[in-house]
DNA sequence: GCCAGATCGATGACATGTCAACGAAAGCGT
DNA sequence: ACGCTTTCGTTGACATGTCATCGATCTGGC
């Protein structure tokens, strides 16, 4: 761990800005979502991903994978949403272990009435504040980082135990 | 709520990319931090902010403000960190209600040994993947969004109850 | 000085997220 | 067909975050 390469002024500005934006944007979007639609961000994400499928149904595992959630977290969260009547679980025909998460009419209703306001908030607090070039840059940069993180090989460019186990 | 302006393809790409990056980057940074230094991200942030002050001491309220945390959350978290010997609380001389959060030698030690690795991780998974122009763009864009969100006036460009209460 | 209201930090109840473990059911090689 | 291993979703214990509330203290107007 010799001579750490600290962030220079510009890098630091970007990193701090990112974290601060992250926090504030989250707070504000969550606040508006709760107030206007009675949904939390996790609620919204679940409903949103479900509603993007043709039937509004997904294997729990598949949904967890798309959301980058653990199955455990999703299972807990679904139980709460099920209580509120937003989703249901059905048994899976081809795999007796599995369960299928199904959007209820109430859930469909909830996401459809929440979406316009939420998208508007995303615009108001982020997208519409950026130039088209910045939108593209953000798209490019985030996807590059995501691809990097998703690749288990690339992620490991660090002082490695070079296979001694 | 007429004709919502949905996100076009590029905007959607940026927004999804942002959220995905957010999640993956967080998971990875938290993972490495725990593994290499035994700290959570919140731990690191507290220690980091404290260590940036000359004496390693801050009013609880002031620290909460800088971190964009509620006083309650910080109080709870400090209790846990105090248990582990990373920080202490001292009474405040000029305000008998207040308490001052103090970095212990162990806390100083912890942040100093964690920092190089953490910065390296931030580089590896984010900063070093960007071009200098992208770093600058990210800095500019995030700060603009932050300024916007911090300004209670600007935040309210939405279908407003136009003062009828 | 005194009182009304604001602020400070702590606390308990509760919501949410993580982690390790589990039983049940598939997959897979033989 | 038989075990061994993996995967699926659930569960309970626990860590963490939020929210409302509290007592103590400060502040400003009178």
From TrEMBL, chains A, B:
The lineage of its organism: Bacteria, Bacillati, Actinomycetota, Actinomycetes, Micromonosporales. Residues 11-147 form the HTH marR-type domain. This is Transcriptional regulator, MarR family. SMART domains: HTH_MARR (SM00347). It comes from the Bacteria. GO terms for biological process: response to stress. One of its GO terms (molecular function) is DNA-binding transcription factor activity. It comes from Micromonospora saelicesensis. InterPro entries: HTH_MarR-typ, MarR/SlyA-like, WH-like_DNA-bd_sf, WH_DNA-bd_sf. It holds the Pfam family MarR_2.
């Amino acid at each position: 761990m010799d001579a750490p390469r600290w962030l220079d002024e510009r890098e630091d500005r970007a990193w701090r800005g990112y974290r601060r934006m992250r926090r504030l944007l989250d707070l504000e979007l969550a606040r508006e979502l709760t107030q206007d639609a009675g949904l939390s961000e996790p609620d919204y994400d679940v409903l949103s991903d479900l509603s993007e499928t043709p039937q509004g149904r997904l294997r729990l595992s598949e949904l967890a994978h798309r959301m980058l959630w653990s199955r455990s977290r999703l299972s807990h969260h679904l139980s709460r949403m099920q209580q509120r009547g937003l989703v249901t679980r059905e048994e899976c025909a081809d795999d007796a272990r599995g369960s299928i998460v199904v959007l209820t009419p109430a859930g469909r209703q909830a996401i459809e009435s929440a979406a316009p306001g939420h998208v508007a908030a995303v615009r108001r607090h982020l997208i519409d504040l950026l130039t088209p070039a910045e939108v593209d840059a953000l798209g490019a940069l985030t996807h590059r980082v995501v691809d990097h993180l998703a690749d288990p090989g690339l992620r490991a460019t660090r002082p490695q135990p070079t296979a001694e186990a």
